[in-house]
Amino acid sequence: MEAYRRVFSDALGSDGGARTWKWTTAIGAWLLCASWTTTAHAAPFDLTWSAPEGCPSRPEMIAATRARLGVSDAEVEEAPDLFVRGAVVAEPGGFLVSFRVEDAAGVDVGERELRVQQRDCRAIEEPAALVLATMISVVRPPDGAPATPPASSAQLDTRDAPGSRAPVTAPGSRPPPPSRSPPRRPSSAPSAPPPSSRPALDALAVASIGALPGAGLGVGLRTSFAVRERLVLGLETAFEAGASVRAGRGEVGFQLLSASLLAGVRVLPDAALELVPVVALRAGVLRTAPSGFQVVKAEAHPMAFAGLGTLLRASLAPRLHAEVMPQAELVLVRDVFQATEGRTTYRLHQPSYVGARLTIGIGYEFP
């Protein structure tokens, strides 16, 4: 009963308005749960659970739901009659929890969504377990209750509850499934967690050809984040150094400092290896570092690039990933670099029309 009072108190806004459930929703759910004065012999159920890192696990959700049903693990000996698919998706300011319940014949008997406005995903355990216990009890009422519960207990008024799409209804109120639909049993293997939308910071190793004499090598930093899960935006800065070019009695080194804007779309957001085609615009300054001349004069020229690439990202650990991004670039600004010694002018370097670039990095996703 104390757990129901805590959920009831949270639903009425004791946390300063974080949850926006209506009074009718909270009172109806509390009265339904408080009315179970004896053990509710609800049907055994199986839960398929998908949730981000840091959320309650599948065993924890099952234990919390059984506790609200008044059923201990030792009492559950029968094969499951109900199969539940539960999923948690992170949203700005909280989490969206959804449940879909099917019976052993594969008939859909109810679904529910609720939003929990908390930063810690652990906070979803009590309200989510309460909602799931309510759904199971509506489908399989306690001993002595009618097979089809009245509308006041089988259908809570949640029209204004955040995230609710359709009320849970008793099996008798739904039309029978078409005879051509074969029975199906939901898979017990959980689906992959939804893609993260948290900002990430990556440390990069950079290699390129075309912009600098020989091959350019350097380091960089990239920050990226997802917009509406599929659109990825990023900002990258890099420093590269190329080969030195001999000119008369001296030589000239080349260095490139650049910044890039990236935009891409997740093609396989649920796969273990994330695939993101990327468009990049890069601008920078290519400067010379002469040595060995009587008169030392450094030059700096602007550079501009447009590129297409593919970002491949794989998870290494919670909030830690590795990534690689090959890229082809079109050089938009390509000045000629020269050096003069006495009356002799040496042509040092001119960037190619087309170049290539590769970045390899390790990144961290912020909470």
Describe how the helices and strands are arranged.
Blueprint (H helix, E strand, L loop, with lengths): L1 H10 L11 H12 L10 E6 L7 H12 L12 E10 L2 E10 L4 E9 L8 H15 L11 H4 L45 E10 L5 E13 L3 E11 L3 E3 L2 E16 L7 E19 L8 E18 L2 E14 L3 E5 L2 E6 L4 E12 L2
Parallel strand pairs: 1-2
Antiparallel strand pairs: 2-3, 3-4, 5-6, 5-15, 6-7, 7-9, 8-9, 9-10, 10-11, 11-12, 12-15, 13-14
Helix pairs in contact: 1-2, 3-4
Overall description:
The strands form three sheets. Strands 5-6-7-9-10-11-12-15 form an eight-stranded antiparallel barrel. Helix content is about 15%, strand content about 45%. It is mainly β and about 375 residues long. Strand 9 and strand 10 form a beta hairpin.
In total, the number of strands is 15
Main sheet properties: 8 strands, antiparallel, barrel
* Assembly level: single chain
The helix-strand sequence is: HHEHEEEHHEEEEEEEEEEE
Q: Could you give a short description of this structure?
A:
The chain contains five helices and 15 strands. It is mostly beta strands. The chain has an eight-stranded antiparallel β-barrel with strand order 5-6-7-9-10-11-12-15. A four-stranded mixed sheet has the order 1-2-3-4, covered by helices on one side.
What attributes does this structure have?
mainly beta, 4-stranded mixed beta sheet, disordered N terminus, 8-stranded antiparallel barrel
